[in-house]
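step: validate -> pass
step: tokenize input -> pass
step: predict -> running
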Amino acid sequence: MSSHEVPQTLMVGGFRTRRSFGFGGLSKTGTMVAVALLTAEGLIGTQVPLSLLVTIPVTLAVFGLAASKRHGMPALSYYWARFVWKRVARYDATSYRRLLLPHPYALDLPGVGASSTLIRATDPTTNRAVGVVHDRSSGRMTITTLLNPGGSLMAPTSSVQGNIRTWSAVLDSMATDPQIKGASVTIQITPGAGEALGDDVKRRQDPDAPQLAKEVIGDLVRTTPYATASVAPWMSVSVDPSESASPPVDLAEQVAEALRVVDGLDLTGTGTDIERRATDIDLRRIVRSAYDPTVFNARDAEFADLSWSECGPQAADDEWQEYAHDAGVSISWVLREMPRRPVPYSVLLPLLAPGRFQRRITLSYRVLDPLEGEAVVEREISNAHDRARATQEVKGRAKHSQAADLKKSQKAAAEVADGAQVVDWTLRVTATARRAEDLPNLRQELDRAVKATRSLRFRPAFGAQASTFAAGLPIGFNPLVKD
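step: predict -> pass
step: emit ->
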């Protein structure tokens, strides 16, 4: 895809990764644990000096791994996750096989979706059916809105600026509503939408047409399935009805309260149009077709009688770097670190371009309330200042990166003081192939798309492929939202 020049006014910044203050690259908690262990080993060594020959090297090796990085994460966390995954895989805990039980027994969705259930309700404002996903463990309700985004590459700069400001206002409204716990925006791109067009052209082609016209049409039919795609965007909002001033008692009142809260989010002016609230059939289609891409274009009638558990996989294997399920195998990548510089508003364009494989890009949000956001930025300023001061005392001056990070944290605090909100966010990408043999091509295509962004860095969701896959579906799971 060709690049285009983006005005400075359409660059988005203010990103920063939270960092605690610790010694030698350790976090604050890691530093405290290291000091406690070394102190305990010193006390034991006064009684059994030879024990230090074993305990000191082991401790230093462990905390050396904790301080070093692998794939952007602490090496100790990476190797520990690898060890745990191998251990559970040995007992087939990473494999799922759906059982057939007689009525009225039923199974839940696997993994992180086990506590969810689908409710068919009626939106009182439109009198239309709407699907609500209820998390039975936390009581949260998740409502999904189907979107119809408009293109902005050809839009005037002022229009795009207005869309960005309006979306910022939507996030601000989330911060002031304690019932909204989190939100996610997902765009699913399914290639091959041109195949139906090719069949239609073949039926309507005139056999007496000139040969040149036939050749041109034939070339277009062959290339169209690889150049077009079906785009399905949606936004899911998680609401806790019990946070209202008068908490609803029964389930019907909780659903009504959740719908009222979501109706209060006005997306007008954000560059997208609301198509409608997702119905229970829409949710079944999205979830089922994610696990089995072959049913993506099936008729609504084929999803109407599916139970919520039947929307999940019939069989699935959660591998270290891929997730095999029904008629496909998927790989999920997560954002490795926050962008270090302002990014253009169109930074995700290479990821949204049609390719050979189905792809889902999910932006997850948790907007902190004003008091929590202020406390976070103040703590980050203190941590950044302490890191710079500690380095200066040891080396005579702070690192340039530390000084720049301190300025960035101070700038964030100034913006919060002026009314800006602090947002926890992350980005996930899931790509699905029909056959395991296509995995090398799938990884290559995804890697090229990520590199084309020039600003974002990803890594595989090691040992968490199934949960990352589910985070892109409208089933009420948002890892940023804590119980």
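step: describe -> The chain has a mean pLDDT of 84.
step: cleanup -> pass
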